[in-house]
Write a structure and sequence with these properties.
The protein is an alpha+beta fold. It contains three helices and two strands. It has a two-stranded antiparallel ribbon. A hairpin with a 5-residue loop joins strand 1 and strand 2. The chain is rod-shaped and about 65 Å long.
């Protein structure tokens, strides 16, 4: 793996998700030695954490438009992350 691929903190959401899906597929097939499966499982956990962080960040940036009584936009407010 190149240094960029090893540094999870630089991966985009799409790249991290693609690699995570690949790891899940490999583990589900069961064709991986024990030591390697432990290592790729740990990387999978880190990739999931990266995806979660990126999603939370995106949710924080999303805002909803507030409307006045006349139905016209009056401003924006943070979108509830519920």
């Amino acid at each position: 793996m190149s240094d960029d691929q090893n540094d999870i903190s630089t991966l985009t959401f799409e790249s991290a998700m693609k690699e995570l899906e690949s790891i899940v597929e490999r583990l589900e097939k069961g064709n991986v030695e024990l030591e390697e499966s432990i290592a790729i499982y740990a990387r999978g956990e880190a990739l999931k954490k990266r995806c979660d962080e990126l999603l939370r960040s995106a949710e924080e940036r999303i805002q909803k438009i507030t409307l006045g009584a006349d139905g016209k936009p009056t401003g924006t407010e943070a979108l509830d992350a519920e």
